[in-house]
Hints:
Number of helices: 13
Structural class: alpha/beta
Strand order of the largest sheet: 7-6-5-4-3-2-1-8
Number of strands: 8
Mean pLDDT: 93
Number of domains: 1
Oligomer: single chain
Radius of gyration: 19 Å
Largest sheet: 8 strands, parallel
CATH topology: TIM Barrel
Distance between the termini: 43 Å
Order of helices and strands: HHHHEHEHEHEHHEHEHEHEH
Helix content: 40-55%
CATH class: Alpha Beta
Low-confidence stretches: none
Amino acid sequence: MTATATSARSELSELGRSETALRTFLHGLPGVDQVGAEQRAAQLGTRSIKTTAKAEAIDLAIRMVDLTTLEGADTPGKVRALAAKALRPDPADPSCPHVGAVCVYPAMVPYVAEVLRGSGVHLASVATAFPSGQAPLEIKLADTRAAVEAGADEIDMVINRGAFLAGRYKEVYDEIVATKEACGDAHLKVILETGELATYDNVRRASWLAMLAGGDFIKTSTGKVPVAATPPVTLVMLEAVRDFRAATGRQVGVKPAGGIKTTKDAIKYLVMVNETVGPDWLDPDWFRFGASSLLNDLLMQRTKLTTGVYAGPDYFTLD
Length: 319
């Protein structure tokens, strides 16, 4: 890290000491050009990738999937089966890579851990009163610690959107700092729930707030509100992590989640990553898709490319 980046990182770390300093910094960030962001995202979505490059993009996208089930009807048997699929997405083709992680509720973590142990597939768990984030801090931290103790090595927390939208930035900052501490060695993904933030300016501010507080990833959505990940929102978040690394020398990952269902969609996001932040983020350590049905479409397209025969949805398990 350069001396300039070290100095900037030190200065930025002081922002969390007061509400006034945080507010001044966050509201001093450049405003997002809504028309420009939407046009840029749409333009990148028109890029086409063919043949060998497409095959490589599909395998990369599979490796970036956080295979997710977050339903009240989840059972030990269901999440064990999901974990087995994460390890061998296509049992008929051993060359198919495994996914990046399996994401479940804290109560389901022990059952997934049995299957994934030693595999290299990460075990992510939502925590902090997911999806609302409306619970006392002590409960959120207990939720986080329980998931880590059960075997999760990644925690997906939700920010308190009510506090953020009311301008109580230090409250949100302090919760992220405390959750990061409760994670221990586990990585922390901070869910902004961008569909409830209303403006791109708020998305940029929330992104910076999460990174300043120590988040390892910023994530768009819980998947539990009508508006989830969108290309323009993800573009704003990618620009934020790019600018944050330029200022501090620290790299932060991005995870769009919810509504990404097709190979075509996934490739559009990969193009956006490459064009906005560059190849350093084209890695499962720095970019993930929160999804379930996306994996099956990736597998169908992969089979078509490798065999020339289209495999319908009945060839793969439903998640």
